[in-house]
């Protein structure tokens, strides 16, 4: 596809809102996935540390 100007590129032949909205949602969900993975990782490490240093009963 060839565009003559930047405005045509952003408009994407009438599908710009769908294309850029989809790209934005994908980026947002990827960032959310990374954040959730980091939180789970740190929570797992904290649990492992707490179990490691617990006194036996």
Tell me, what's the shape?
rod-shaped
How many helices? The count is 2
Contiguous runs where pLDDT drops below 50 for at least 5 residues: none
Q: How many whole angstroms does the radius of gyration measure?
A: 23 Å
Report the end-to-end length measured between terminal Cα atoms.
Answer: 70 Å
Tell me about this structure:
The protein is rod-shaped and about 75 Å long. It has helices at about 5-10, 15-50. The chain is built from two helices and no strands. With about 55 residues, the chain is mainly alpha-helical.
How does the SSE layout of this entry go?
Blueprint: H1 6-11, H2 16-52
Keywords:
57 residues; mainly alpha; 2 helices; 75% helix; rod-shaped
Summary?
The protein has helices at residues 6-11, 16-52. It is mainly alpha-helical. The longest helix is centred in the middle third of the chain and has 37 residues, at 16-52.
């Amino acid at each position: 596809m060839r565009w003559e100007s930047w405005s045509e590129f952003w408009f994407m032949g009438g599908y710009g809102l769908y294309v850029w909205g989809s790209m934005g949602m994908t980026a947002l969900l990827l960032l959310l996935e990374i954040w959730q993975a980091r939180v789970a990782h740190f929570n797992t490490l904290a649990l492992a540390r707490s179990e490691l240093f617990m006194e036996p009963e």
